[in-house]
Specification:
The complex is a heterodimer of chains A (about 120) and B (about 120).
Chain A (H helix, E strand, L loop, with lengths): L3 E4 L2 E4 L5 E7 L6 E7 L3 E10 L2 E4 L7 E6 L2 E6 L8 E10 L5 E5 L3 E5 L1
Chain B lengths: L9 E5 L4 E6 L7 E7 L6 E7 L4 E3 L3 E6 L4 E6 L8 E12 L2 E6 L3 E6 L1
Parallel strand pairs in B: 1-10
Antiparallel strand pairs in B: 2-7, 3-4, 3-8, 5-6, 6-7, 8-9, 8-10
Classes of the chains: A mainly beta (about 120), B mainly beta (about 120).
């Protein structure tokens, strides 16, 4: 499981409330990612980080912010949740495969429902 | 469990048969391709990868074939087992620096194995 945990695993919230999802890794990987997964769209990149305090936007970053104050934690924040942000959120890290190519390994996911 | 993909292409096979899951990719400049398996309620799990300078790679019971001429990727699973039932995603990686890149996912194929 690449030492990735996500919290909470399930959350129900109301429109307009702030929400923070946490991704924690135990293996000191430099690169971390946040994706969302929706029926008909597959997995889409929200934001990624290439080091402490170094982050960049992905394909669907509007309405989301991220922070990485230490290597092991990557936080995803919805400042004011909307119903369109109901989704399953996955965190990933980048690590070498047996062929020494870096690939992405995923956490267990957080199911977020915005009412 | 999670409903990771409504209206996904579905492949139904008999236990013990071989399965072939296909994927068309979009960018002829993609450097690297990955197959993931996602079981209900879990995050995507790395299965096998292949670089763009290869046309075939084998793992344990799985083989990935890459046809760059027609931008087609396939995953072959030998002697399919009930535990292989899952949604399978292909992903293509565009490198942006060093060994890192953006991962673009396909929509997925749902494999159902009949006992």
């Amino acid at each position: 499981d690449a030492g990735i945990t996500q919290s909470p695993r399930h959350k129900v919230t109301e429109t307009g409330t702030p929400v923070t999802l946490r991704c924690h890794q135990t293996e000191n990987h430099r690169y971390m990612y946040w994706y969302r997964q929706d029926p008909g769209h597959g997995l889409r990149l929200i934001h990624y980080s290439y080091g402490v305090k170094d982050t960049d936007k992905g394909e669907v970053s509007d309405g989301y912010s991220v922070s990485r104050s230490k290597t092991e934690d990557f936080l995803l924040t919805l400042e004011s949740a909307t119903s369109s942000q109901t989704s399953v959120y996955f965190c990933a890290i980048s690590a070498p495969t047996s062929g020494n190519t870096d690939t992405q390994y995923f956490g267990p996911g957080t199911r977020l429902t915005v009412l | 469990g999670e409903s990771v993909g409504l209206h996904l292409p579905t492949l139904s096979v008999q236990e013990g048969d071989n399965s072939i899951i296909n994927c068309a990719y979009s960018n002829s400049a993609s450097d690297y391709f990955i197959w993931y398996k996602q079981e209900s309620g879990k995050g995507p799990q790395f299965i096998i990868d292949i670089r763009s300078n290869m046309d075939k790679r084998q793992g344990q019971r799985v083989t990935v074939l890459l046809n760059k001429t027609v931008k087609h990727l396939s995953l072959q699973i030998a002697a399919t087992q009930p535990g292989d039932s899952a949604v399978y995603f292909c992903a293509e990686l565009h490198y942006y620096g060093g060994s890192q890149g953006n991962l673009i996912f396909g929509k997925g194929t749902k494999l159902s194995v009949k006992p």
